[in-house]
Amino acid sequence: MKITVVGTGYVGLVVGACLAETGNDVICADVDQGKVDGLKKNVLPIYEPGLEEYVERNQAAGRLVFTTDVPSAIRDAEVIFIAVGTPPDEDGSADLKHVLAVADSIGKHAAREVVVVTKSTVPVGTAEKVAAAIRPHATVPFHMSSNPEFLKEGAALDDFMKPDRVVVGVETEFARERMAELYAPFVRTGKPIIFMDIPSAEMTKYAANAMLATRISFMNEIANLCEKVGANVDLVRKGIGSDSRIGPAFLFPGPGYGGSCFPKDVKALVRTSEERGAPMGVLKAVEDANEKQKHRLFQKITEVFGGQLKGRRIALWGLAFKANTDDMRESPALVLIEELLTAGATVVAHDPAAMHETRRRIGDAIGYAKTSYEAAQGADAMVVVTDWNEYRFPDFARLKSVLKQPVVVDGRNLYDPTKMESLGFTYRSIGRGRA
Ligand code: UDX
Does 264 sit in the ligand 1 pocket, CB within 6 Å? Predict the structure, then answer.
């Protein structure tokens, strides 16, 4: 099929590369000349394991083409994915100006019957607005579809190639058939394509992310309570996660959720719920709990040092909002760094992927170390912020020998509290009794 993806951000690139991988002719269009020039040379604007190989392979095979010429990319397409950014407005609602600009181009330039798919996470009602923007100029029939994306950063290719399910909102049989054909290679294992009406598809994306964010905030509050009552949240997590109604995933307490989706989508859904007169009090509480959680690591460090952080050197292991990404958007590390610096501490960080992005944001306000041990060298405490695999099994003897004081504050519960105490560390983690 001839596919056009407009927007070469995170979602657009993954969709384009994966649809090319299954033999479609894909044009990825973006107005950003620099980005497109880079992509033509297989230089990706984001870090995602495996994506570079996909782009390179499919570009070399001629199935994947990058261009800034949006009108010509639209002209001959059978399916057009709109995957441009929807940054939050000041009030938290998604800004649709880029989406509607693409719609306007589709109306003006589409030259054959086409399915127009909203792929960016957009509020309920957006497909209708897109259709309204296309209609006045349209010279060919078009069919709307909403096809939300459930990709996780760091596992995006797998998520796309082997999805749990594909959700597709459609209004016409034409759109349904096209989308079924397009996704057939990805659901051969029997996973479902769930067809539904468009508002339900749009709502599904928000409901999924809001539910997951709710689980995390819930577990973070349970963890904080565990500390007060002397319980161990890891055991509580296993205890409840083995109930098939609850399930084991997304029950890990930590320094608060971050990233480009959860914070933005929860905010947007709170906003929509208020606007539509069905306010979601649950989600407001989820947001509040997450804001509080982002301060927990600082509180723990402060407690260890009796409130005296001036002149202390603190090592951070991890900066990205989660492992396997260089994404710093809404990362709890940024909140922690600001608090530490304000308290007069110096910060030296290590991250396998996100140091470049952190420096772009906050410059040399902190030090950047080549290795995790170099970051810990001479530090009064080491703080685990991100759950990178390489931090899971450190050489504790080496760590202890390079630290000035054997203090470890573990925001991801990577280590065993009993073992850490027996090795002579002062160890704090999330929701495991006093530790
Ligand atoms: C999320 C959704 O999972 C994905 O379906 C959607 O398309 C986009 O948003 P992503 O933001 O890439 O994906 O990351 P995810 O792995 O879901 O983690 C989100 C945040 O929650 C991270 O900050 C992570 O550290 C945190 N988290 C996750 C926890 O604190 N505990 C958990 O148990 C799981």
Answer: no
Of the residues 18, 28, 226, 261, only one is catalytic, namely: 261
Question: Residue 90: exposed, middle, or buried by beta-carbon count in 10 A (0-12, 13-18, 19+)?
Answer: exposed
User: 294: CA distance to ligand 1 center in Å?
Assistant: 15
- Rounded to an integer, what distance in angstroms lies between the CA atom of residue 375 and that of residue 382? 8
The full set of domains in the chain, from first to last, is: 2-196 (3.40.50.720), 205-292 (1.10.1040.10), 294-428 (3.40.50.720)
Work out the average pLDDT over 45-73. Answer: 96
What are 28's strand-pairing partners?
5, 66
Instruction: For residues 63-70, give the mean pLDDT.
Output: 98
CA 132 to centroid of chain Cα atoms: 30
In contact, 166 and 194? CB cutoff 8 Å:
yes
Q: What is the pLDDT of residues 404-419, one digit of tens each?
A: 999 999 999 999 999 9
Read off the pTM: 0.93
Share the mean pLDDT of the chain.
Answer: 96
18 annotated active-site: no
Distance of CA 336 to the CA centre of its chain: 19
SS3 content of the chain, % helix, strand, coil (to 5): 45, 15, 40
**CA dihedral of residues 379, 381, 384, 389 (deg, nearest 10):** 50
